[in-house]
Write a structure and sequence with these properties.
hydrolase, about 25% strand, signal, Immunoglobulin-like, about 1000 residues, TIM Barrel, disordered N terminus, Alpha-glucosidase, 17 helices, nine-stranded antiparallel β-sheet, globular, nine-stranded parallel β-sheet, alpha+beta
């Protein structure tokens, strides 16, 4: 035992005295105790973030900046040499003496500015510029030129090099570094742009924060496995922002006067111009938003800025996706159904019981998911034979698929490395990877061995030329045992539960337990939502007492050793990647980049260190998983992937969920801003864990959240091990609320699917902020408590407890917009810019249809397969000018390249609705009915292509002004869109 104790201490696994702070878990496959790696093993050095350190050097005050010379102009832009304008400051690294500036007008609406070191030794791994094989650079179009650009770039050397990007149409300065100095070092780059007073910026992810970014925020970007801390850096990195500016236009002289959104009036007319900015850099970043400027700080790489001229949000997003990060992947139709998951579904029988209970209560269910429970000792691509045997799974999945449903398991990023001296601990997934040498290394060439759920683990090196083939092979092998329908990529920031290569020399201890699980002694979950103490006072009091007792016990039995590190002083010519001289405000313990992550000195096959590409691990894993699923399904089905860590462009392969959110009202509120931000990033398949993941939910929160999430593209309920069950059938009121919201969702699935087709083919977005859809109303700039699904559906959810009303605004009502209540189908009586109080008792979510819209619908069902077999309906909501329009896209719902598709356009004008189809898809379901809102007089007769519709099938409500035309199945037996038709009244 002395040797074992020594090794455990060496690995920072546990105190030398076995005590209450150390969980002892017995493995079914091991004869000895299995030890849990304590939280102290991943305690990082306690660093002070520069933004919090009053002693930190202000690079702007000590660095000399640069002077431009040797300017060379062409029809597409210009280049220049930039040389230090004085003595090097070496504030947080080694100053670069010579830089090259390249200004390239890439298209009429796109501008690229690069500032890169003039000399980079390809053999020197101390400088890394983001590889185009990982994140491609936007390319200039053939007809790009300075004269045709929306932008103008000017520069000056006074007092040092600075530049401006100007919108030609308005003269507005969009990016302005005047009054600041460019700082360019091997581990620190800083540049500053001025911003107008009361600016409106969106994006810069991934964070849990308000939709419109705060004007005093420091937004860190470094992929981090942390729950969802408000304003802290979490799973992904998206260095892209949208900037919207409002003006009063002077028609007499053609000038524009800036308008503050706080001083605007919704009843007045304004104009807006939006532009986008993307920094192509994978290093750790900070963006400092201050009163009238924005500062970019990065720990390395280069300056590679792309500007998008808009002028609307929709234009910016399309320009960003089409030219730079790629269009989002097309989701299979059935992925838009409801998904149920839980960490704690312990066997196939439990999954079957969940599915049957959904059926019992007639709640739609499309997908059932497995968290890490299915794994054999938490190892990827291996099922636990005692609880999730392959034979029983084959039977369950066959029945699940026969019912029209689907299954998704989780896959983590780390690969278990077995004890080499224990033949019974063999793990073929590791062995095959080791044979190809495709795992991350330490700087000395030895294996980098961290720790995650299964114990000591290694990590695929996505820079290795055989890594994707390895990953593909593992998924193909596993797919022959488990007929999964998608993959859930988790822990891919990439996460590790200890500092450094803690498994090196300690593999004889494997399998160790990666961490103390929720529900274990000392980790009992007592947390409940806000106001639970009011609605459930007795339970809340008991939970509070339990939490206090546990906290006291933990405080007296847990000892954590903390290391303190003074600030790293830069050494000219030397990079310190573990403790860089500039400390970004990383959310993890002590701001240490190594905390809860693979250490920055981990080394890839091409010599690149994790320091330079850390935030790309998940991005590359998603790509590998996409390629693997193409192979698994022989290219016949669209890969369905939900990933946690994403980078700019990950939407080409995957969707994203909001991560380990909380069962709190504030967490539900922030999910809207997060969903809208990922719309900007080109990842429309987004959803949050409904009812919350971390902590216990309660009936009221789950009631409201299940309704809110019904209008997010990805709709899933998921919660943490040992928390109370929260499937929607657990409470009678939640059953009713869920079915009510799902009835709407499933009715408009054709509309959702059409929005995804448009996103996939044009770069438009699915979920929309009011400010983006109504760009000329500054009063909407900060609204993130309501949102739009496409252009036509507005949702105003309740986001606080103990209320039965909600306030909402109805944009455009002073300028001709009409909004109809989904439930009553009557026009809303609202005033411009006024927060209207709306009745919203528990179980009711206010939903509105925008006038001028035509929505294609089908009947709700328990699965999307059955819903797609039902007759069609149209909901035509006439605008104030008595017109409306809409469209629907139809294909087989799953092929990557469908052999047949159909596009149907709908228009309405005064007393007619017509449909015009193009394409080869044969839609056999008939048209059942058409409902027209805003019809001001009862029609005397209704015809479809000249054939009169029976008066018994026609009804008109003069109070609500709703015309309903039913009984159309007989007139459309060949299919709703088999021929073009006109409905007249």
């Amino acid at each position: 035992m002395v040797g074992l104790t020594h090794l455990l201490a060496k690995a920072w696994l546990l105190p030398l005295v076995y005590g209450a702070s150390q969980s002892v878990i017995y493995s079914t496959s091991a004869a000895r105790p299995q030890f849990t790696i304590p939280a102290s093993a991943e305690t990082g050095a306690q660093l002070i973030a520069n933004i919090d350190d009053p002693q930190a050097v202000n690079a702007q005050s000590v660095c000399p900046g640069y002077k431009a010379s040797n300017v060379q102009r062409s029809s597409r832009g210009f280049t220049a040499d930039l040389n230090l304008a004085g003595e090097p400051c070496n504030a947080y690294g080694t100053d670069v003496d010579s830089l090259t500036l390249t200004v390239e007008y890439q298209d009429s609406d796109r501008l690229n500015i690069q500032i890169l070191p003039t000399y980079i030794d390809a053999s020197n791994a101390s400088w890394y510029l983001l590889s185009e094989s990982i994140v491609p650079r936007p390319q200039a179009s053939l007809n790009a030129s300075v004269s045709q650009s929306d932008f103008q770039v000017s520069w000056s050397n006074e007092p040092s090099f600075n530049f401006k990007v100007i919108r030609k149409a308005t003269g507005d300065v969009l990016f302005d570094t005047e009054g600041s100095v460019l700082v360019y070092e091997d581990q620190f780059i800083e540049f500053v742009t001025a911003l107008p007073e009361e600016y409106n910026l969106y994006g810069l992810g991934e964070h849990i924060t308000q939709l419109r970014l705060l004007r005093d925020a420091t937004l860190t970007m470094w992929a981090s496995d942390d729950g969802t801390p408000i304003d802290g850096n979490i799973y992904g990195q998206h260095p892209f922002y949208l900037d919207t500016r409002y003006f009063k236009a002077n028609e007499k002289n053609g000038t524009y006067t800036p308008v503050k959104s706080s001083e605007a009036n919704a009843s007045q007319e304004y104009v807006s111009y939006s532009h986008g900015v993307f920094l192509r850099n994978s290093h750790g970043l900070e963006v400092l938003l201050r009163s009238q400027n924005l500062t970019w700080r990065t720990l390395g790489g280069g300056i590679d800025l792309t500007f998008y001229s808009g002028p609307t949000q929709a234009d910016v997003t399309k320009q960003y996706q089409l030219s730079t990060v790629g269009l989002p992947t097309m989701q299979a139709y059935h992925t838009l159904g409801f998904h149920q998951c839980r960490w704690g579904y312990t066997n196939w029988s439990e999954l079957a019981d969940v599915v049957s209970t959904f059926e019992k209560f007639e709640i739609p269910l499309e997908y059932i998911w497995s968290d890490i429970d299915y794994m054999l000792e938490y190892r990827n691509f291996e099922n636990d034979p005692n609880r999730f045997s392959y034979s029983e799974g084959e039977e369950f999945l066959s029945q699940l698929h026969d019912s029209g449903r689907h299954y998704v398991p989780i896959v983590d990023a780390a690969i278990y490395i077995p004890d080499p001296n224990n033949a019974s601990d063999a793990y073929e997934t590791y062995s095959r990877g080791a044979a190809e040498d495709i795992f991350l290394k330490n700087p000395d060439g030895s294996l980098y061995i961290g720790a995650v759920w299964p114990g000591y683990t290694v990590f695929p090196d996505w820079h290795h030329p055989k890594a994707v083939d390895y990953w593909t092979n593992e998924l193909v092998i596993w797919s022959k045992k488990v007929a999964f329908d998608g993959i859930w990529c988790d822990m891919n920031e990439v996460s590790s539960f200890c500092i450094g290569s803690c498994g090196s020399g300690n593999l004889s201890l494997n399998p160790v337990s990666g961490t103390t699980l929720p529900g274990a002694p000392g980790n009992i979950i007592f947390d409940y939502p806000e106001a639970f103490n009011i609605t459930n006072a007795t339970e809340a009091a008991s939970a509070s007492a339990g939490a206090a007792s546990q906290a006291a016990a933990t405080a007296t039995t847990t000892s954590t050793s903390v290391s303190y590190l003074s600030r790293t002083e830069p050494t000219p010519g030397v990079r310190n990647v573990e403790y860089p001289p500039y400390v970004i405000n990383n959310v993890q313990d002590g701001h240490d980049l190594s905390a809860h992550a693979v250490t920055p000195n981990a080394t890839h096959a091409d010599g690149v260190q994790e320091y330079d590409v850390h935030s790309l691990f998940g991005h590359q894993e998603l790509n590998a998983t996409y390629q693997a699923l193409l192979e698994v399904w022989s290219g016949q089905r669209r890969p369905f992937i939900i990933g946690r860590s994403t980078f700019a462009g990950s939407g080409k392969w995957a969707g994203h969920w909001g991560g380990d959110n909380y069962s709190k009202w504030w967490s539900m509120y922030f999910s809207i801003s997060q969903a809208l931000s990922f719309s900007l990033f080109g990842i429309p398949m987004f959803g949050s864990d409904s009812c919350g993941f971390t902590g216990n939910t309660d009936e009221e929160l789950c009631n409201r959240w299940m309704q809110l999430s019904a209008f997010f593209p990805f709709y899933r309920n998921h919660n943490e091990l040992s928390t109370i069950p929260q499937e929607p059938y657990r409470w009678a009121s939640v059953i009713d609320a869920t079915k009510s919201a799902m009835k709407i969702r499933y009715a408009i699935l054709p509309y959702f699917y059409t929005l995804f087709d448009l996103a996939h083919t044009t770069g438009s977005i699915v979920l929309r902020a009011l400010a983006w859809e109504f760009p000329n109303d500054p009063t909407l700039a900060a609204i993130d408590t309501q949102f739009l699904v496409g252009p036509s559906i507005m949702v105003i959810p309740v986001l606080e407890p103990l209320v039965d009303t909600v306030k909402g605004v109805f944009p455009g009502v002073g300028h001709g917009e009409v909004w109809y209540d989904w439930y009553t189908q009557t026009a809303v009586d609202a005033k411009p810019g006024v927060n209207t109080t709306i009745s919203a008792p528990l179980g009711h979510i206010p939903v509105y249809v925008r006038g001028g819209s035509i929505l294609p619908m089908q009947e709700p069902a328990l699965t999307t397969r059955d819903a797609r077999k039902t007759p069609w309906a149209l909901l035509a909501a006439l605008g104030s000018n008595e017109t409306a329009a809409g469209q629907v896209y139809i294909d087989d719902g799953q092929s990557i390249y469908p052999s047949a598709t159909l596009h149907v356009d709908f228009t309405a004008s005064r007393s007619r609705v017509q449909a015009s189809a193009r394409g080869t898809w044969k839609e056999r379901n008939p048209l059942a009915n058409v409902t027209v809102l805003g019809v001001d007089a009862q029609p005397s007769a209704v015809t479809l292509n000249g054939q009169e519709v029976s008066s018994e099938s026609v009804s008109y409500n003069s109070t609500s002004q709703v015309l309903f035309v039913g009984g159309l199945q007989n007139l459309t037996r060949g299919g709703a869109w088999a021929e073009n038709w006109v409905l007249e009244w």
